[in-house]
Every structure is written in C-alpha cells, then in structure tokens.
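Q: For a teaching session next week I want to show students how multiple molecules come together into a single three-dimensional assembly. I've collected the sequence lines for a complex. Could you give me the predicted structure tokens for the whole thing so I can convert them for display?
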Amino acid sequence: MIQFKRDFNFMGARKFAAAFSILLILISLGSLAINGLKFGLDFTGGSLVEVTYGNPVELEDVRASLRAEGYADAVVQTFGAANDILIRLGEAHDPQLGNTILSILQASTDDTVTLRRNEFVGSQVGEELREQGGLGLLVALAMVMLYLAFRFQFKFSVGAVLALAHDVILVLGFFSIFQIDFDLTVLAAALAVIGYSLNDTIVVYDRIRENFRILRVEEPIEVLNTSLNQTLSRTIVTSLTTMLVLVVLAMFGGEMIYGFSIALLVGVVVGTYSSIYVAGNILLMLKVSREDLIPPPPKEDIEVEEVP
Amino acid sequence: MLNRYPLWKNLLILLVLVVAGIYAAPNLFPEDYAVQISGSRAVHQVDENVMSNAVRALESDGITFKSSELENGAGMLRFSDGDTQLRARATLARALGENFVVAMNLAPTTPDWLTAIGAGPMKLGLDLRGGVHFLMEVDTVQAVSQRLEVYASDIRTTLREQRIRYRSVDLDESSGQLAARFADQESRDQALSRLRRDYSEFTFESTQVDDAFFLYVTLNEQTVREIEDYAIQQNLTTLRNRVNELGVAEPLVQRQGRNRIVVQLPGVQDAAAAKRVIGQTANLEFRLEATSDASRAATEVFEFRNDPNRRGTLERDIIITGSSVANANATFDENGMPQVSITLDARGGQMMSRVTRNAIQRRMAVVFVEHKTRTVIERVDGESVERRIPYTEKHLISLATIQSVLGNSFRITGLDSPRESSELALLLRAGALAAPIYFVEERTIGPSLGAANIEMGITSVKIGFALVLIFMILFYRAFGLIANIALTLNLVLMIAVMSLMSATLTLPGIAGIVLTVGMAVDANVLIFERIKEELRRGTPVQSAIHSGFSQAFSTILDANVTTFIAAIILFAMGTGPVKGFAVTLSVGIVTSMFAALVITRALVNLAYGGRKVQKLWL
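A: Of course. Below is the structure for the complete assembly, covering every listed component.
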C-alpha cells in the first residue's frame, strides 16, 4: 500500500513560500508589462492559412515564394509536423486570401499542397473578445468570492480568491515569458484553472474549517498543518491523475489544443502549490481563529417599535 | 442497516444507467458518407423520377451506392467512402442540372427504433467535420439612415400636399437627423404642427440661423431599435434563403449579440464561392425618371450596370427601397417573352400606387445599390491600424415605362432574353437586404483537418482514460476497481446527456471530456481517503465506509459548485469553441457527482454492505 509521510511542517516554510510566490508574481507581472501576451488570431484579428504539403518543406522556400508575390509581412511557421505550414497575415488582404496563398504555394512547388484551414478575424471582434475575456475572469472571481463568503467566512473567501488570482497571474505570466500563443482555447483553460485550483483550495479549507471545530488545539498554525497533512494524499492523487490526462492531451491532442493543455498543466501545478501555501498563508496573515468559524450567538430582537 | 441501499434505490440507479446507455448508443454507429438532393426552388420537387434519374446516372458511371431514400421532398444517397461520395456528387450535379442542389452530407445511421425515442448522436462541430464559419456584422447605422431617407421623401410629399412651402428636406448623415429648411417662421410652424400630427415616432427641434428657419427631426430611441431589429431579422431571413440556395446539408444561421449573425456551413470547402453567394450586400431604390423640366438640384444621373455608356436622369425622391420587395421571379408573359414579376409588401404597395397614379407613361427606374468596403492600413502612432472604409456604388438595372397604376405586384417587361430576366430577378432578390452586412470573421476548416482532430481527440480520450484506470487500480485496488466502473459509467452518462441535449461536440469539448475524466477521479479520491483515515483511527469497517461517504459529501459539494460557477460564466461569456468546452465541463461536473456519490456508493454497498468485513482491500 502506498503511503505518504504525514507530518510535514508545511506552514514552517510559509515565509519562504510567501517570498517565493511574491517573486513569481513580480516576474509574471513584469513579463506581462514588458513582453505582453502573444495574442493569437482570435484576439488580434487578421488572417491565417494552414496548408499541408505532401512532404516536409523548407520554411525559407515558402517565405521566399510568398515574398515574391508581395506577401512580405507573412509569418510562416510549422504547425505540429514538418509538412504542416501555418501562415499568418496581419490583416485581411481580400476575401479569397486562402485560395490565393494556396495557388501561390502550389505554383512554387512540385509537391501537393492542400488547404487545411483558413481563418479571418476582424480586428474589432478580437478587441471585444479581449474585453469579454478579462471581464469573464473578473466576474468568475467575484462570484466565487461571494459563494465562499456565504459557505465559509469572509477571511476564507479572501484567501481563496487571492490564491486564484495568484494562479491566474502565474499562468498568464508563463504564457508571456515563453511567448506561447494565447488564443480562445487558452482563455478557456485559464478559466478552467480557476475551477480546478478552487476545487483544491476548497478541499483544504473544508478540512481547516472542520479541524478548527473538532481539534482541541489553539494554535491556528497547527490546525493548518494537520489539515494539510490530512489532505495531502488526496491532493497528490488528484493532481497526478489530472496531470496524467493533461500530458496525454498535450502529446496526442494535436496542435490546436496544445496551448490549452499546457495552460491547464501549468495551472494544475500552480494550483496545487497555491492551495497548500498561498491559501493557507493568507488565512494565517488574516489571523484566522476558531471564533471565525463558530457561529455567533443569535442576536436578541432588541428592535422596539416606537409608538408616537 | 448500515451501507445497504433499499432495492428501489438500486433499481432506480439501474434504470438511469440503462436509459443513459440507450441514449448514448447512437454515437456508436458510424456516419455514412451521403449525398443529399433537394430542389433549388420550391417548384422543383425531388420525386421518384428524379431519384431514378440519379440512380441511372450513378450506374452508368459505375458508382455503387449503399442505399437511396426519399423523404420530405429531398433525396439521400449513401456511399461507403469519401472518394465515392465526391465522384457521385460530380456525376449527380451534371446529370440533374441546375434545378436541383446536390450537397455532400454525413448521414447518421441510427437504427429506427432509437430515432423513434428521440435518440441521436452528438453533432460534430465545424472543427471536427470541416466546413466554413462566417461571422457577419449588420450595419445598423446604415439601416437607420436608409429609413430616414424614405422618411425624407414622405415628409416632402406631405408638405407638398399640404401646400406648405419648404426649401429642402435633407438627411444629415453624421447626426442621424433630418433637417427641413423653410423661408419663414410661419411655414415652419405649420409644418411642425402638421408633422407632429402625422408622425408619432419623431422628436422635433426648431432653430433659426440668420434668415433660414430649420426644423430638425430625430427618430426616437424605440423606433431606432425597432429598425435595427428589423434590419437584423430581414438579414437573417435573406441569409437563410441564400444559404439554402447553396444547398448545404445542415446550415446554421443565427443571431449573435446585438448586431451580428453567425453562419456555419458544415462540409462546404469553397469558402470563396459561399461568400460570393451570401455576402452580396445590396439594396434597391425605385425612383421615377426626371421630367425634362426638373431642376438640376432635384435630379441625379446614374450609369447602367451592364452598359456604363448608357445613363438615366432620375428624381431624387425614392418611392420605395429594396426592403419593401417581398419577392422577385423571372417568368414569361402570355407571348412567351421574358419578364420579372415583383411582389411588394403592403406599405411598399401603397407607396407605389400613390406615386404611379400620377406618373402613367413616365418611366420608372430601379437603382441597384451595392455596399462595398475597402480596407486600408493606416499608421497611427507608429502602429498600423486597419480601417474599413465603406462606400456605395449605385447603378441602374432597369428603366421601364409605367403602363398603369402599380400596386402590390407588378411586372417589368421588355427584357431581351431569359438570361437578362433571371439576372434582374436575382439582383432584385439580392437587393431585398435591409442593411449592409460585413464579414468580421471567417474560418474554413478542411475535412482532413477535421478528421485528424477527431482522431487525435479520441486517441487522447482513450489513452488518458486508460492511464487513469491503471493508476486508480494501483492506488486503491478493490476500491480503485469500483471507482473505475463508476468513471466508465460517468463517461456513458456524459455522452448520453450531451446527445440528449443535442449539444455540439467540438475539439475543446473533447478536451473538456478528458479533463472531466481527470477531475471526476477527485470525488472518489476524497471519499476513499476519508475511509482510509477512519480505518487508521480504528473505526470498524462498516462505519468507516459510512462516515467516509458522509464526511466527503460537503467537500465534494462545495468544490463542484464553485467549479460549476466558473463553467457557467464560461458559457455565458464565451462563443463557439469556448461554449462547447463550458457545456462539456458543466455536464461533466453534474454526472461525475452523481457517479461518485450514487454509483460508487451503490457499488460499495453491494460489495461490502451488510456483511462482516474484517479488512478492506483499499
């Protein structure tokens, strides 16, 4: 039977963890400020053509033949396989761009070229999506905070939401630092990270709440440590199975959902870490205590109707 | 007794699972490659004759088909593979001619008894089956100013009929107002009181600049909104008709947001051709030809569309616009000469008869208005910014003598050839769009990419699922096995619910399924860990199981509700693929809770409940 050691002093390293988290957040925010996100077509607007060659081709050849036809601004890259080529253009040249590009490429090679995908997104649509996406994240955070304040207590909802914000910032930072395409599916993944990381945090908080009520220990730090140790094997098993599935998705799911899988993978790692360190740490900083969780005695009805 | 479900509860669970199994089943039957034959217009019905022609054509080209069906005036031929389908389509299109539309399709092979109870497979999204996706924006500002133009003509007529002298009534495009100009205050006030009585949809404002007296007329907010809604509704209808002309098997034409329309054409590969048909944005203006003594300010000169050297001088007043045209058909008159029959809506008919009553033997022109856009790239602050500059082209397409008072339906005769009449009819129908539309998004996904996406998606589901199953058995042994059965049933439940909702499966949707598999484990893990803890504390086996489930319950509920909140927000804010992901995620959350709390519980109860168990194999 696989067994985990169960007496880690998680909160002993909390100062170090806090410093580590803050450092990571600063790096992420810094990269987001300087490099920004490499927004995909969905958000920037523009045109994209994906073609497949019968055999692998040299990117430089493709670029040269496009340049010769006046598409000097085209970004050419492979997409998954060496014979699968993705061509991006900044703006819509004309409605038949896909076919035009296809015939240019067909003319410049003896190989067969087939059109796989041709997309055009107006810049205005992209801008709206960016706004909607940001708004979506904020609304999600707000709703979750409300639910937790109602089910647990205000301090817990602050802790959970800060842990979530931490996770989302780090995931975005990761995409910014490594300049991975940020498209609609990645946004979906970022929102799913909220869901996942929340899941994790709630499980830990649930235990903390329970232990505050039943354990005869006064020190919040001890309550947290016990709770984290009790949930440790669940945390590890769930993270492992989810990561297992995500690794499979990243490896076999194809290029179109690669970004999605990576975002979630990073999210799961960060989410697991944050539900142990960030969520717990913030509870300690807010000086959580048993009194917070024991319902206050019902108030007596002292309202007296004044009779004029 | 502890850990025993009553019989009815077990039976209920079994019933749910059997129903789920039945509704998930249609997804197991692979789709057939099919070709669908439908009439290009209502007069051309597909009947036994047409089908036997089709079958003969296929036989003479040596193409074998699996079956042929005729239902609701549309024929369907099924083939064994994609290549045959392609060849068959070409053969059929040649053999049946222009009166019939031959479209490629994927036909479900759900057995009849399953179809009869409303079961069917999940629909595949464009990213999985290939096709074209367009997002179009309706220019509602333009729609409003078009309507204002008509109002301007109306007002001029009213003022003339009431003998109120005015200098001009013009549309100010930038402010969206009509400006009526008068020589003196008295006429303006007369006009104001008259127009107030006639039009409830206006708000008025009077000003005086030097010796000119102005009356500004603005449409109220509610009317503007009505015009916008109407423009979008009409565009939707027109787009549906045009899409039907393309003969696509399961097209989607839907309003999205305030002023956008999404069009999805599964299986269509030639985006350019599709765009030509659905993207023509045009309008019509019916005007009278100017009399020779008309002042230059009241007239406008247009070129003919098919002959730039020919011109016509028309009055500025518009009788009706294309939005009043209900239908236009190329037909033949009694003498077999080509003609175009036009039907107008009620309001258009009234306007037409009012104007033509005094204009018999004068000529009426039809002006074809095309809204086009040029995209220019401008440099603003060192960044290139894409700007769309809309412009209009107006051409004459017909100039014909009015023989009698025209009403709701009339004919344009004197056309040279059937080709000319059918083209004119086509232009008239095309021009019936109320407001110009622009393409703001376009995606074409090749069929090979779609097939590859399905394959990759299914491969990842299989591998991911298998790994999770192995992991669970290694980790929780007997309980792992139970969890695995629950997980598998969870997958069946999910597919059944999605099929019942006839949800569309997209690539992110498959990712959602894979993710749910990973997360569905969580509920089981929470329960098993609790049971282990209880056992470690020395709790007897049966009560350890019992309290394991009950203690994990609130945790599972809280965790899932919060994730569900996130999924709902995704659904509300997202479009297309993101929505697909949100749907699978929400369905997955619900089914996985059911699987862990009910199915796992039932299985554990069946295995251990009410029995003397010394040690759990956990």
